[in-house]
């Protein structure tokens, strides 16, 4: 994969450092395709990440939210050394998947279903950041009434 040089953008933008660092991180995370996963939008402010975790028990999976990332990992507790496979197509090797979360997105729950780990996400924008209507008053009202701060 090729790397993108964002340095020309640094000269003409202010306050976008985090965005460019995020793009660098996402494009150079070195993750493999194992295990396969889906990311879907389930509503206006809800999302779901579905990870194929066939062969893993619930206590062998871990989900952790830290530093704006969701880290999903799995590690088999028991090894199948006593078994002799003729063909082994179900991979149960340890894994760690990192998903970068946008601001105000948090994991609201997780469940396993038919060999899939489903993580529900919700975006909760604080009231202070939501759009609000500003009342328009006439000049007479502005000069005669004190304004609340």
Automatic annotation (TrEMBL):
InterPro entries the UniProt entry points to: A-crystallin/Hsp20_dom, ACD_IbpA/B, HSP20-like_chaperone
Keywords in alphabetical order: Stress response
Pfam families xrefs: HSP20
Span of domain SHSP: 28-139
Protein family membership: Belongs to the small heat shock protein (HSP20) family.
Name of the molecule in the record: Hsp20 family protein
Species this chain originates from: Pontivivens nitratireducens
């Amino acid at each position: 994969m090729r790397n993108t040089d964002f340095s020309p953008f640094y000269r003409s933008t202010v306050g976008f450092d985090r965005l460019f660092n995020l793009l660098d991180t996402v494009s150079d995370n070195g993750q493999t395709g194992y295990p396969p996963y889906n990311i879907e939008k389930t509503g206006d402010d809800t999302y779901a990440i579905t990870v194929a975790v066939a062969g893993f028990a619930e206590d062998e999976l871990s989900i952790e939210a830290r530093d704006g990332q969701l880290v999903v990992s799995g590690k088999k507790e028991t090894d199948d050394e006593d078994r002799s496979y003729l063909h082994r197509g179900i991979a149960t090797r340890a894994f760690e998947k990192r998903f970068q979360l946008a601001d105000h997105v948090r994991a609201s729950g997780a469940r396993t279903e038919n060999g899939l780990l489903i993580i529900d996400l919700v975006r909760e924008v604080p009231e202070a950041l939501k759009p609000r209507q500003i009342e328009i008053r006439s000049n007479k009202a502005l000069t005669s009434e004190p304004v609340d701060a």
